[in-house]
Write a structure and sequence with these properties.
By secondary structure, this protein is an alpha/beta fold. It has two domains: 196 residues, Rossmann fold, CATH 3.40.50; 147 residues, 3-Layer(aba) Sandwich (Rossmann fold), CATH 3.40.50.2300. The protein is built from twelve helices and 15 strands. Strand 3, helix 4 and strand 4 form a beta-alpha-beta unit. The strands form three sheets. It has a seven-stranded mixed beta sheet with strand order 7-6-8-9-10-14-15, with helices on both faces. Bound molecules: (3S)-3-methyl-2-oxopentanoic acid. (3S)-3-methyl-2-oxopentanoic acid binds next to loops.
């Protein structure tokens, strides 16, 4: 009896991989971003941008007539949350995953997708080494090696007398430590002097010691690499204690959701950006219009990048159908995931709100245009805008 049962079990087990498990219709694409925790400041913008993409591409007929469906999973703000979200999406049979929000989370969760052979497009992972996590890992978020230095150059253009720089960074976050490294190299290359180098934690709220060090070192430029709430509080306390010089913020200060944290004291922060809502391309005009209609505000970088990550998946799906002359929904799931990954890394150029981009064979994004903006706050002290720095 046991033997019969065992051999039956064996037959069933062996038969599973051979059983065709087709892609569902509408085509499920996973979106794993933070909708709870502090990191939801970024994630909320990402959900907004992704939803616009879903409606926009489905209105165009989706993937040659087959609609897509975004499947959202909250990653919260830590590694475990991202791992769980990725696991649920893989089990939910998505063809690919857009996410997670933080590089810190990507280093933990991406290997899971890599093992399951599920393509990942990072919408906001900017640390060094993300595409190198694996063959199924790409990103549309330009690395800080490319983006960060231009904001320093802009600071020098605004105030050529800058000489002494204070560099502050969150030591418990992979993106922040990666970005500060890039800033520190650029500071050296520009012949500036680092007069203070200070660490903090993304969970810190009291920055008195740091601010005292910056003021004591007589820095005339402060460069911050952290996430949203910590960076916002740091800026606020720098200003409250009397720091008057320029502040360059890293990618963590790229969210309008950070504005209420430093309020009117956010005014004047310089931030390099991979997106401008002013870009005059047809797709960006459409994106800005739809986004503004839906949310009554202009999109910022994290929304545009989430839109672009979904777009990359859609265009990869279209390419797979075109090249194979087969409907995605007629393909086996594993085969479709593999084909989507190949299409993503094929070098195809896509016209996105971020401009023309492509992914190279390693999954690294190639993007042409970047911007530096200054934060301008409104009298309500909660809202404001990133205005292109002149
Ligand atoms: C990263 C980042 C963050 C600021 C994204 C929200 O750039 O973690 O890579």
């Amino acid at each position: 009896m046991t033997r019969v049962f065992l051999s039956l079990a064996l037959i069933v087990t062996l038969a599973v991989p051979a059983m065709a498990e087709p892609v569902a219709k509408p085509i499920p694409i996973g979106v794993a971003v933070a909708t709870t925790s502090n990191i939801a400041l970024f994630g909320e913008e990402q959900v907004n941008g992704a939803k616009i993409a879903e409606a926009y591409f489905n209105a165009q007929g989706g993937v040659n007539g087959t609609p897509i469906k975004l499947v959202f999973q909250d990653t919260a703000g830590d590694e475990a949350g991202a791992v769980n979200a990725f696991q649920s999406l893989i089990t939910a049979k998505v063809v690919g995953i857009v996410g997670p929000t933080l590089s810190q989370q990507a280093f933990a969760a991406d290997p899971l997708a890599e093992r399951a052979k599920v393509p990942v497009v990072g919408p906001s992972n900017t640390a060094k080494g993300i595409p190198q996590i694996g063959e199924y890992i790409g990103r549309i978020s330009a690395p800080m090696t490319v983006v960060a230095p231009i904001s320093l150059k802009k600071a020098l253009a605004i105030n050529p007398k800058i000489k002494n720089v204070a560099v502050l960074y969150a030591q418990n976050d992979a993106f922040s430590t990666s970005e500060t490294g890039v800033f520190q190299e650029a500071i050296k290359a520009l012949n500036l002097k680092t007069v203070a180098l200070q660490k903090f934690q993304t969970t810190d709220t009291d920055f008195t010691t740091l601010v005292t060090a910056v003021l004591g070192a007589r820095a005339d430029l402060v460069v911050i690499s952290g996430l949203a709430a910590d960076s916002g509080n740091l800026v606020k306390q720098l200003r409250q204690f009397g720091y008057k010089g320029l502040i360059v913020g890293g990618n963590g200060l790229n969210s309008p959701n950070m504005f209420p944290v430093c309020g009117s004291l956010c005014e004047g922060i310089l931030v390099a950006q991979a997106y401008s809502p002013m870009a005059e391309t047809p797709v960006n005009k459409d994106f800005v219009k739809k986004f503004t209609e839906a949310y009554k505000k202009a999109p910022a970088q994290f929304s545009a990048q989430a839109f672009t990550a979904v777009q990359a998946m859609v265009e990869a799906l279209r390419k797979v159908e075109k090249d194979s002359k087969k409907k995605i929904t007629a393909m086996e799931l594993a085969q479709a995931r593999q084909a989507v990954n190949k299409a993503l890394l094929s070098g195809m150029v896509i016209h996105t709100p971020l401009g023309e981009i492509s992914l190279d064979r390693e999954g690294e994004v190639l993007q042409k245009q970047f911007y530096v903006s200054t934060i301008k706050m409104n009298p309500d002290k909660k809202t404001g805008a990133f205005v292109l720095a002149k």
